Prior knowledge:
With about 90 residues, the chain is mostly helical. The protein contains 3 helices and no strands. It is elongated, with a radius of gyration of 17 Å. The termini are far apart.
Amino acid sequence: xxxxxxxxxxxxxxxxxxxxxxxxxxxxxxxxxxxxxxxxxxxxxxxxxxxxxxxxxxxxxxxxxxxxxxxxxxxxxxxxxxxxxx
Length: 86
């Protein structure tokens, strides 16, 4: 329980940031899953589009510091490997 106005504001800010970070991470994970489904379908154009969307989502999460830069690099490498299975 916050004891002063500043602490109460920090609690509100932390809650807002937590929700935004979770949304960015969720969008990133969903975009990564779309790559896998496109690869399974065997549609080269869909894979290309899904990889582009996944890279964009990963880069956005990293830019906003929702994930670490090295984590973003690993995720992008994973997406590229998955797309190469096509």
